[in-house]
């Protein structure tokens, strides 16, 4: 923690140095142009005090006549004459960012700040006005009552690079193209029928996973279960996305991991998006472009090879995600043109959203079951009673018939305690509106802190405890209508791929509990298993989950192609 704060302090010092040079450069430009104010844009923003009272703007040219006014324009500012949500005191240039350095996980720091300032809280991340939502009531106001007003995504410069400037579904601006892509995703890519069509793939990959664990169990070696889970989910998702194992898989997943880390990084260019100088000087953005271009090159290769295969086979049964997109592109039956760039952006969406969430949630399920032996015993008992005497791997049809209610509660509790994306993905206010008595200015970035909501003692008994029983005899679900439990979001921007992610996870979880017992390394107690999250967009486990698998139910894997 101290090391992280020290690094953050160095970063802030560097930021002040860069911005000081920016101020000097701007002053020199003004001097060179004379005192007519050319190049200084009028702004509706003005410097604010700690009490949030804005001063009236001076209009175009004020910065040129008075150099201090120019510096004033570069300071963190608030809109005039608006009743903004309360928030912590701010500093020039960096705004509220110094309040977030106490914890490398921003959703935890934001939860602590919300305890002081309320469920609708205003922060300034550099020059970016940001509202943090931390209660079910506020979440409902944003995602339901004012859903259309907050239907846009906040997209920083780095994310814009990776999404080809918002040509995808996840970060695309709300409009006709986005609506058509959403419709395409729901009806063609992520429908119940499409998810069902991948059943055989999931069963085969679970069989491979179980066989690999059995080999380690026979040898008596420990495994890093979190890494094996990630590999299993990635293999499954690659086959669902492309149709087969892919020779580019490893390098593409490496590039995608780099992109995910870069998207979560703190960048000067992202917190001062209006500065062209900082955008041009940013090494982070240049690295993002290089990474995006490499990903596009790999996906381009996959697209070309898939098109060639489709021309030879011309089949539509058991289509992969990419073959569906290329078929629709060829048919040209959509109201929008499905360009190769849109196909690339959608494939990046599917990989980044689908694989990370499923592997993260499955890892947390096993982590918490190891920490709570009584809960593990009950979950295993349910699974083993349902499949008693079975000597082959479990199939999805058998899992559906068994209706393992407690196992579903385990999955829900893992999603509650460890929301895959703790702040969801940020929305953007499309026009100034009023929420819960406060004005939210147009362009404001909005985070819904579902991690804080799901751990709020007002709505959950013993919120820090892993207790799947809380979901027994409860109608609470993750479909977006229970605002105290929104792991996949709600409203127009709700994640459409939740069913696919859960399908990729549930069969594996049941199989892990049926076929194996699990032991911690010698000397490690269940209560000491690390449950810290790693920094990033997705709340992954910070350390590996090292366990000894012990075969409990001998099995013969179902048919598994090489």
UniProtKB/TrEMBL annotation:
<dbReference type="InterPro" id="IPR036396">
    <property type="entry name" value="Cyt_P450_sf"/>
</dbReference>
<dbReference type="InterPro" id="IPR001128">
    <property type="entry name" value="Cyt_P450"/>
</dbReference>
<keyword id="KW-0503">Monooxygenase</keyword>
<keyword id="KW-0560">Oxidoreductase</keyword>
<keyword id="KW-0479">Metal-binding</keyword>
<dbReference type="GO" id="GO:0016020">
    <property type="term" value="C:membrane"/>
</dbReference>
<comment type="similarity">
    <text>Belongs to the cytochrome P450 family.</text>
</comment>
<dbReference type="InterPro" id="IPR017972">
    <property type="entry name" value="Cyt_P450_CS"/>
</dbReference>
<keyword id="KW-0349">Heme</keyword>
<feature type="region of interest" description="Disordered">
    <location>
        <begin position="41"/>
        <end position="63"/>
    </location>
</feature>
<dbReference type="Pfam" id="PF00067">
    <property type="entry name" value="p450"/>
</dbReference>
<keyword id="KW-0812">Transmembrane</keyword>
<dbReference type="GO" id="GO:0020037">
    <property type="term" value="F:heme binding"/>
</dbReference>
<keyword id="KW-1133">Transmembrane helix</keyword>
<dbReference type="GO" id="GO:0010333">
    <property type="term" value="F:terpene synthase activity"/>
</dbReference>
<keyword id="KW-0408">Iron</keyword>
<feature type="transmembrane region" description="Helical">
    <location>
        <begin position="6"/>
        <end position="29"/>
    </location>
</feature>
<protein>
    <recommendedName>
        <fullName>Cytochrome P450</fullName>
    </recommendedName>
</protein>
<dbReference type="GO" id="GO:0005506">
    <property type="term" value="F:iron ion binding"/>
</dbReference>
<keyword id="KW-0472">Membrane</keyword>
<dbReference type="InterPro" id="IPR002401">
    <property type="entry name" value="Cyt_P450_E_grp-I"/>
</dbReference>
<dbReference type="GO" id="GO:0006952">
    <property type="term" value="P:defense response"/>
</dbReference>
<dbReference type="GO" id="GO:0051502">
    <property type="term" value="P:diterpene phytoalexin biosynthetic process"/>
</dbReference>
<dbReference type="GO" id="GO:0016709">
    <property type="term" value="F:oxidoreductase activity, acting on paired donors, with incorporation or reduction of molecular oxygen, NAD(P)H as one donor, and incorporation of one atom of oxygen"/>
</dbReference>
<feature type="binding site" description="axial binding residue">
    <location>
        <position position="495"/>
    </location>
    <ligand>
        <name>heme</name>
    </ligand>
</feature>
<keyword id="KW-0611">Plant defense</keyword>
